[in-house]
Amino acid sequence: KNWKVRNEANVDLASVCDSITDPKDPRLRDFGHLFRKTVADSNAPVQEKALDALVAFLKAADADAGRYAKEVCDAIAAKCLTGRPKTVQKAQDALLLWVELEAVDVFLDTLEKAIKNKVAKAVVPAVDVMFLAISEFGSKIIPPKRILKMLPELFDHQDQNVRASAKGVTIELCRWIGKDPVKSILFEKMRDTMKKELEAELANVSGGAKPSRKIRSEQDKEPEAEASSDVVGNGPTEEPVADAPQEIDEYDLMDPVDILTPLEKSGFWDGVKATKWSERKEAVAELTKLASTKKIAPGDFSEICRTLKKLITDVNLAVAVEAIQAIGNLARGLRTHFSASSRFMLPVLLEKLKEKKPTVAEALTQTLQAMYKAGCLNLVDIIEDVKTAVKNKVPLVRSLTLNWLTFCLETSNKALILKAHKEYVPLCMECLNDGTPDVRDAAFSALAAIAKSVGMRPLEKSLEKLDDVRRKKLSEMIASSG
Hints:
Layout: H1 3-19, H2 26-31, H3 35-38, H4 44-60, H5 69-79, H6 85-100, H7 104-114, H8 120-137, H9 144-155, H10 160-177, H11 179-186, H12 192-202, H13 216-232, H14 250-253, H15 260-265, H16 268-271, H17 277-290, H18 302-312, H19 317-334, H20 339-351, H21 358-373, H22 379-389, H23 395-410, H24 414-431, H25 437-454, H26 460-464, H27 468-481
């Protein structure tokens, strides 16, 4: 009960932990459970010494100490973030050491609770330690998605210091993952004044941030790496290259949205069977709207896709266009979860390319490109459907299919083209003899796209079979595309 005794005990504990050099020392396991109570001490000087002991413990321990992380971090968030400045700083040091020991999820769970504290004085240090974690460890260790989820409520906080700290975290995130993903997710949830302030500050933010601190398991690897570089000897050293911001796919930062439940309630199924074309269009338009969300929760879309496949050939072109646009949105929002459905609908979409009306052609182009870009289809998947389409009796189907193939080739990686080019080169060579100039030009473009990606070698044998005029034209196109 005597605070001086508790104080001395914390000082002794810190001293013992400082003397430990082996993270597997059994004493560390005896100490771990103590900190839940010691850091919550009601006496401020004792609490501070308890945090000193915790910091010493975390420096001596390894990832095994993670078993105590939740209870200790919760105690820190509840009792240490409103104390004296030195106490707050030591609490933040301890929280960052838990990150170093790879208890990142616990750290972020703790912050999620801490930012809901009714006392603004306790929220600011929590947001500040969030900033320090990203700044020191980087976005590979601290998942941006978790941080982005916490920020909107901080922008609306009544305390200006909390809002200012949240702005600092946002700017720091932009240094790590780029401005666009951060802006697209956060800006729609912000007030206009905050948007303007951030826009002004983001103008001067550049990417290429590098971590200044490593998690413990990476630190342990460092001596080995240095030793191996010494063995190599005094070879020429490479110039350091400035890192670009970490490539983050916005899609991965989003939460999936369930669209099946609201679609069911919207009267979609009755609408698509209606005899009036305007009612059918309205029902599909509701699906297009719901599917425009950036990330759709996976589910059973098979019946919806069967319905859309029929509507692609609807007698009313406005209904057909709406169905085609809905498919494009589903592809963008579901990505690989839409693969089977994409393959199921592809033959009908390619056949529909015969429609001359610009609105239909535009919708088909956008949707076919979206299906490929979203990863619903790849070059190997589409071979048979492309082969069928380039033999279609309507020249427009042949030329537009080849245009889409060119897009697919231009947006595919080299390995995939090397895997599939043996199927596509003969097919395109055959199309160079087509009676329609647009088809021939589209075939030239597709061949040029193959050559640009994997070089001339796959085309050499086929080139020998071409007459001089065609060989010259293809060579010129390849040269200009390169």
